[in-house]
Design a protein that fits this description.
binds magnesium ion, 4 domains, two-stranded antiparallel sheet, binds adenosine monophosphate, globular
Length: 519
């Protein structure tokens, strides 16, 4: 197995001089060297062949060499694994040092002009593991593995996944934090991204008033990941922040488009590249509900519910602005960027929603059409994915009832009566009228909508079914879903069974709609 190793982060940035793998507060450094834990009896469950190709991996993905490296058994020649130091604001409060507590970076590789950092998640403790074990269980690893690749194919900026390995070790977990711990199968995912640097990497250095290392990290990030911005200067730092804001906005708009709820949008889970990162208690909107969050840890305040995600990104950007301030020492340009974010959000969100409706021309009443739709969608439980996919079948000049076209999306069709029915009929009539102002034929519009509204997403219960089977040693469903989600916008008629509402058994099931942090 050969890779074009080009380590940058660990070669160009200051390392923690302590080499022992002991928990500690790290200062004046961006990372600590640490070796992965030797797994007892590793076995390969799945590989993303596309990802292997993208990183330029030569040699067989079924070889012992591959398993050795991506289970943490063997270190790639000439590399020194490390854990990154970062802090973060968790649920609105500064949490101090966090860091890669269960992630170990193996190396960075270059292929076809792209940089890829390879990181094992669940490969054992690091100086940042705090009170936890540095391990990951099969269930959460399958969720990250399947979802990150699915998001990529949906066109959402995201970290990716190369491999999923069983460690052969048992891991103790209290799934719902209710005093009922049990042993589960341990697993390791190799995640891949151009960089895993987070907002929190900058925040920790600012909090420590270590401006020298902060500057080194910002300069490094610009040099390797925003090279077009040029040589670092105050203006370039501002431009850098502006780009991070723009990329983060783009990311969160994609989340809103496909109905993805991250669940833990703490600043340590915000990628500086605007990638979706850290797939924990995420979930997919089934019933369209602005207030929904899959994260039971956040049930009381619903800070990270679906509808607040764009505002949370803004809040997180403010924390990043504070961290960058020592290099800029002027609040006004940073505030201006935050203002721009708000302005752009106001413009971009309706454009995104309009694209879901197949509306591409300008019209003064579109906001009303969006607002009334969002309201009526929430009056009875309506499946987001099915609704928007079926909406493409509405015909502009056919007075047929639009409700018939989308009826499969309603969880309880008996609710579509009286006032709710009237609201829907009014909406469809306004919608059809509006379609008449578009220059597209019904077929052209449907084609455009089907590129925006996925037919298949990783519904919460689908991941759970794959997990349940995998726990019993059957990985066929894992593979089926992995392949299904590579073409989320295609009809795939033989996969129609996954174009279905959440079954009733999954409504309140742990793992389906109820998940907790750091499983
Ligand atoms: P998360 O909520 O998954 O983003 O994690 C927040 C912090 O807790 C990060 O610093 C993680 O590295 C750390 N963490 C989560 N799970 C574990 C674990 N099992 N062992 C060690 N650290 C962990
Ligand atoms: Mg995290």
């Amino acid at each position: 197995m050969k890779l074009n190793i080009k380590d940058k982060f660990s070669k160009e940035l200051p390392a923690d001089p302590v080499l022992q793998n002991t928990r500690r507060q790290v200062r004046n450094a961006c990372f600590s060297f640490v070796m992965p834990k030797q797994p007892t009896n590793p076995s390969l469950l799945h590989v993303s062949a596309e990802m292997a190709k993208a990183i330029g991996l030569t040699g067989s993905i079924t070889s012992k060499d591959f398993l050795d490296v991506f289970s943490g058994t063997k270190v790639i020649e000439g590399t020194k694994p490390y854990a990154m130091c970062y802090g973060g604001h968790q649920f609105g409060s500064w949490a101090g040092q966090l860091g890669d507590g269960r992630a170990i970076n193996l190396a960075e590789v270059e292929h076809e002009g792209k940089n890829w950092a390879l990181q094992l998640k669940g490969a054992g403790e690091t100086p940042y593991s705090r009170t936890a074990d540095g391990l990951a269980v099969l269930r959460s690893s399958i969720r990250e593995y399947l979802c990150s690749e699915a998001m990529y194919y949906l066109g959402v900026p995201t970290t990716r996944a190369l491999s999923l390995v069983l460690s052969g070790d048992k891991v103790l977990r209290d799934v719902m934090y209710d005093g009922n711990p049990a042993y589960e199968k341990g697993a390791i995912v190799c995640r891949v991204a151009p960089s895993f640097i987070r907002f929190g990497n900058f925040e920790i250095l600012a909090a420590q008033e270590d401006v020298k290392t902060l500057r080194a990290l910002v300069d490094f990030t610009i040099k390797h990941h925003f090279p077009h911005l040029g040589k670092p200067s105050k203006e370039v730092y501002i431009a850098f922040f502006e780009e991070v804001a723009a990329k983060s906005l783009e990311m969160v708009l994609h989340w809103q488009r496909v109905g993805f709820v991250h669940g833990v949008m703490n600043t340590d889970n915000m990628s500086i590249l605007g990638l979706t990162i850290d797939y924990g208690p995420y979930g997919w909107l089934e019933g369209y509900d602005h207030g929904w969050t899959p994260n039971t840890t956040d049930r009381a305040h619903r800070r990270y519910r679906y509808s607040t995600q764009p505002q949370v990104v803004l809040w997180n950007l403010l924390k990043l602005a504070n961290a960058l301030y020592p290099l800029i020492e002027e609040a006004e340009p940073l505030q201006a960027v935050l203002g721009t974010y708000q302005d752009e959000l106001k413009v971009a969100y309706p454009i995104m929603m309009k694209s879901k409706l197949g509306l591409f021309e300008k019209d003064g009443k579109d906001q009303e059409l969006i607002d009334t739709l969002e309201a009526v969608l929430q009056r009875s439980e309506t499946d987001m994915t099915i609704f928007f996919r079926l909406l493409a079948k509405v015909k502009a000049n056919d007075a047929q009832n639009g409700l018939d076209v989308v009826k499969e999306a309603f969880y309880d069709p008996r609710e579509i009566e009286g006032d709710i029915r009237k609201s829907w009929e009014d909406w469809f009539s306004a919608y059809r009228k509006r379609l008449g102002k578009e220059g597209k034929s019904d077929t052209e519009r449907a084609t455009a909508m089907n590129l925006v509204n996925p037919k298949y997403v990783l519904r919460n219960y689908m991941a759970q079914l794959a997990i349940d089977a995998a726990e019993k040693g059957d990985y066929t469903l894992l593979d089926e879903l992995f392949n299904l989600l590579k073409k989320p916008y295609d009809e795939q008629p033989n996969m129609q069974k996954w174009f279905a509402k959440r079954p009733e058994w999954a409504r309140n099931k742990v793992g389906c709609s109820m998940l907790s942090c750091s499983s």
